[in-house]
């Protein structure tokens, strides 16, 4: 792949993109679930190709859709569906209050606050909170269910200035798994610089590119994720927008994530040894070398082959297989691997908003988890593998009829 073939530039530094990281063909938008009527009609497919910037090492997709096309008012992802994730949010709130001495005089703002899954825990401590969420459906849920004050808007530098002027200057801001969703990365990050109080702190959580590569997590690549982040890339774009990383934590969430603690460049928070330790680990693992990114492409193809070989052998034995979950990552996996109704009978999901809908591309029906006990499949393939422990505990009853689980990532395995 040569630079002239790529019609885009790095969304951080402007370098022309020429280094292919993963080419997953053409797929529909992963969160565009279909109604019964829509499944009878056409749906658009878009190229799904990720590139690595040779200058700043930001891994990113080509631009085909605007954010407001992807995150519409009826966006179907509700964070509170996962008890594992809600527990993680609760622990975060406790830890941040203790570390940064938050009181009833403090203000916590979450950007991409979804359905109030996190801010409910700060509110219960008497801390002032504000959610910023562009998707009307989940924002209204936060307002109605948790009484979380929420601004329905996209966030960026102008929004940060406006919110600070309106009295929401923040002691702490949280942005969990949202950096990847942002097409205008520099504008978005600058918004936190404007929203923070002089000594305020922002935390950002995101899946770590190092884990994505080492664990073959190619299914986390989809159109709603514009970027795939290392600390190397994040450190650079924070600094270029008036912020600096002063601490970093490794987390088990989403297959291995980082939580970075960020402040204004002039704030008195000392840089912790953890920052240089992670940067050095990334250098040692080759994140500064083209060969690391090129090698990933072949591992993606081999992961696909292994999963298809397993499913073909199971189906030739006359066994039945269903899916568990309807996450965006699952739709990338199924569409890239060509897994449809010839392999899976259906999938299930705990989110009522998804039940009765159909997966984009494969058009598999999404049922209630109760369907598994009724149909007693031989295998249940876990699509949100990052919470496989939670799902296997919920679905432990499949063992009573000899049912088994399939985990597709990092390599197809029967459990």
Automatic annotation (TrEMBL):
EC number: 2.1.1.-
Domain Methyltransferase putative zinc binding: 10-71
Full protein name: Class I SAM-dependent methyltransferase
Any Pfam family hit: Methyltransf_23
UniProt record, GO biological process: methylation
Organism in which the protein naturally occurs: Bradyrhizobium septentrionale
Protein origin, superkingdom: Bacteria
GO molecular function: methyltransferase activity
Domain C-methyltransferase: 252-410
Lineage: Bacteria, Pseudomonadati, Pseudomonadota, Alphaproteobacteria, Hyphomicrobiales
Signal peptide, first to last residue: none
Keyword set, alphabetical order: Methyltransferase, Transferase
InterPro entries according to UniProt: Methyltransf_Zn-bd_dom_put, Methyltransf_Zn-bd_dom_put_sf, MeTrfase_14, SAM-dependent_MTases_sf
């Amino acid at each position: 792949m040569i630079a002239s073939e790529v019609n885009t530039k790095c969304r951080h530094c402007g370098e022309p993109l020429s280094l292919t990281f993963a080419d997953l063909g053409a797929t529909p938008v992963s969160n565009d679930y279909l109604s019964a009527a829509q499944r009878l009609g056409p749906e658009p497919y878009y190229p799904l190709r990720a590139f690595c910037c040779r200058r700043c090492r930001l891994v990113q997709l080509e631009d085909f859709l605007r954010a407001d096309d992807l995150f519409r008012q009826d966006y179907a992802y509700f964070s509170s569906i996962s008890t594992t994730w809600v527990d993680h949010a609760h622990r975060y709130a406790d830890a941040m209050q203790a570390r940064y001495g938050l009181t009833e005089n403090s203000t916590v703002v979450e950007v991409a606050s979804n359905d109030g899954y996190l801010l409910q825990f700060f509110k219960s401590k008497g801390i002032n909170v504000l959610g910023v969420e562009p998707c009307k459906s989940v924002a209204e849920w936060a307002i109605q269910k948790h009484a979380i004050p929420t601004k329905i808007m996209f966030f960026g530098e102008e929004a940060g200035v406006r919110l600070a002027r309106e009295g929401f200057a923040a002691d702490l801001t949280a942005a969990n798994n949202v950096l990847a969703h942002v097409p205008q990365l520099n504008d978005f990050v600058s918004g936190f610089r404007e929203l923070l109080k002089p000594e305020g702190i922002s935390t950002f959580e995101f899946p770590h590119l190092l884990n994505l590569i080492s664990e073959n997590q190619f299914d986390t690549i989809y159109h709603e994720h514009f970027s795939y982040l290392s600390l190397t890339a994040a450190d650079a774009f924070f600094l270029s927008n008036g912020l600096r990383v002063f601490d970093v934590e490794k987390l088990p969430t989403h297959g291995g994530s980082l939580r970075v603690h960020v402040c204004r460049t002039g704030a008195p928070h000392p840089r912790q040894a953890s920052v240089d330790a992670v940067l050095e680990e990334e250098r040692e693992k080759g994140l500064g070398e083209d060969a690391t990114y090129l090698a990933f492409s072949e591992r993606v193809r081999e992961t696909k082959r292994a999963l298809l070989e397993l499913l073909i052998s199971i189906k030739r034995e006359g066994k039945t297989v269903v899916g568990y979950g309807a996450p965006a990552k699952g739709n990338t996996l199924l569409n890239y691997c060509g897994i449809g109704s010839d392999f899976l009978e259906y999938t299930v999901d705990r989110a009522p908003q998804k039940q009765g809908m159909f997966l984009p591309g494969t058009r598999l029906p999404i049922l209630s988890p109760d369907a598994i006990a009724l149909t007693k499949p031989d295998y249940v393939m876990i699509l949100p593998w990052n919470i496989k422990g939670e799902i296997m505990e919920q679905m432990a009853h499949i063992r009573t009829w000899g049912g088994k689980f399939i985990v597709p990532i990092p390599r197809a395995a029967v459990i």
